[in-house]
User: Fold DinB family protein from Promicromonospora umidemergens.
Amino acid sequence: MRMTTERWTSATVYPDMWTDPDHDPREALAKPVGEKETLWNYLRHYRITLEMKCDGLDAEQLARRSVPPSTMSLLGLVRHLAHVEQSWFRRVLRGQADTPKLFGKSEENPDADFDGAVADPAVVEAAWATWRREVTAADQWLAELPEEELGRTVLRGSDEIPVRDVLVHMVEEYARHVGHADLLRECIDGRVGQ
Assistant:
């Protein structure tokens, strides 16, 4: 016997969407002007989408590993993306390479962000606080970045990378993981959509 999950949505206009366009917080983002604003706008869009995909879930649901044997969970994604924000914006773009990595992540424990995503409200609260702190720090740095600096290169190890490429990579990183979040959320309660 095949079990079906009820598809949940708060949309009234388009039942296959997460929410109606008039209530979608991403629709309120300003129309970007210029390359930096465009990249930043996409990044903000995906950050909001991550928050939407996690909205209304408890600690057990956020930590649920819906696709065994993967260690990926929505909570793991929040922790991972906090690490990614810190790694690229603090360690690479700001040159703070000595900043300790988040969540005990190391060469010996590369999946600590996912492995430590356990169903504990304190872990959930800490993950969101860390993610929001890193997003705020990244946005402060971006707000001060002159458009003409996008072509400047920064060092990541021994590689020189244009700032522009880092921002494109951040958009790519979020886009990929928000796709994972879509599937994880649908497995939890059937909620689907944009």
About this structure: The domain at 58-183 is CATH 1.20.120.450 (Four Helix Bundle (Hemerythrin (Met), subunit A)). The chain is about 50% helix and 5% strand. The beta strands are 153-156, 159-162. The mean pLDDT is 89.
